[in-house]
Amino acid sequence: MLKQIFYTKLVQSPVGPLQLVASEKGLRAVNFNGKEAHKRALSEGMEDGENHMLLVKTAKQFAEYFAGKREKFDIRLDMQGTVFQIKAWRELQKIPYGQTISYGEQAKGLGDTKKARAVGMANGRNPLPIIVPCHRVIGSNGALVGFSSGLKVKELLLNLEGVANKDSKRRIS
Hints:
The chain is an alpha/beta fold. It has helices spanning 34-43, 53-66, 83-92, 103-109, 116-124, 151-160, and strands spanning 7-11, 18-22, 27-31, 47-48, 101-102, 137-138, 164-165, 170-171. 35% of the residues lie in helices and 14% in strands. The strands form three sheets. The protein has a four-stranded mixed sheet with strand order 3-2-1-4, sandwiched between helices. A two-stranded parallel ribbon has the order 5-6. A two-stranded antiparallel sheet has the order 7-8. The N and C termini lie far apart (51 Å). Mean pLDDT is 88; it is low at 166-173.
């Protein structure tokens, strides 16, 4: 069996350094603890992907997103997870830029409103944050809840997208 090769590239962003990881099939991960993850990955034998076409394209699209010039990513993905997780992540991709839904609404989109907690668990394991926009899922009362990289990062991303707090008609803060 052939060993799978992974490529890694570090990009700077307003939410800190992001480590991008690609396989031959597509983008595999976006890690918020970028600098440390990138160093560790290179020391563990990942290939330097500084000039890898997919990672260069991804870095460019991130720069456009953070500059407010891109609302949707056009990147080939290599999602790895359980069948349920992948379904939940595909449902996340349907949430339009600048809009939010609740975990219950996401579960309803999957066909079972009782799976809101399972959806939350799947979202917490999303290996492709921002591109697969789990930051657009909020509590049923409009509160910011559950984001693996912290609520400050979630708030920053939602404010970047112009999402207003439903109750106060202002930016989330």
